[in-house]
């Protein structure tokens, strides 16, 4: 469960960076 949370959190952070970058 912890690994799942970290994976989803990293995905959300990556999405925010991708949206804010370009």
Q: Can you tag this structure with a few keywords?
A:
22 residues, 1 helix, 0% strand
Structure description:
With 22 residues, this protein is mostly helical. The protein has 1 helix and no strands. The protein is rod-shaped and about 30 Å long. The mean pLDDT is 81.
Structural class: mainly alpha
Helix content: over 70%
> Which regions contain 5 or more consecutive residues with pLDDT less than 50?
none
Q: What is the rounded distance between the termini?
A: 32 Å
Mean pLDDT: 81
Largest sheet: none
Overall body shape: rod-shaped
What is the H-and-E element order?
Answer: H
| Beta-strand residue percentage | under 5%
Q: What is the tally of helical segments?
A: 1
What topology does this entry show?
Blueprint lengths: L1 H19 L2
Q: How do you describe this structure in short?
A:
This protein has 22 residues and is an all-alpha fold.
